[in-house]
Amino acid sequence: xxRSARLLLAGLAATALAAGTLSLAVAQESPRxxxxxxxxxxxxxxxxDGSTKYYETNAIPLLINKACFGWRTWLxxxxxxxxxVEVLQTSQPxxxxxxxxxxxxxPDKTRxxxxxxxxxxxGYMMRSWCIIDGDPPGTYSYYITIDGEPRGEFVFxxxxxxxxxxxxxxxELSCPNKFQSVERQPVRPSAAPPG
Length: 195
Hints:
Radius of gyration: 17 Å
Order of helices and strands: HEEEEEEEEEEE
Structural class: mainly beta
Largest sheet: 7 strands, mixed
Number of strands: 11
Distance between the termini: 50 Å
Mean pLDDT: 79
């Protein structure tokens, strides 16, 4: 979808980097408290000097080859590998889409479905995609299924940035669905009544 193989590769690299950076940021903000156990949407911006800053927000400035967006979700339990299905839906088609073999792109270039094995580390899993030329403004939604169970939905708004200012603070951007992101609890089969 509005992501590409370049996006996918950049997204995977950004995911690994973001995991460490988000954990460090949480630790730096509250040295006496344990990190909150929750799922979040995030946006990162990489500046010309190579530094990257992460924001807990769902407002994506469309900064070409500078901004990435993604999600981190709490699963708990031991480190392990799980089966992930991630559907990224955009409200408008992307100009170009290049996808890896684990991602199927819809003919209208508005949906990318990724099926893969993914690692859970310290109870968390996270993924991200990066903005490339031709990514449209509008609503971007992630629908996440883990081991066959719906586990999350993250709704972002992508905002056009004509000046491509890397100093923008995405938390100050205005969009109609700001922080309308939800977590879905795992669906567990109920026990059959005795009888």
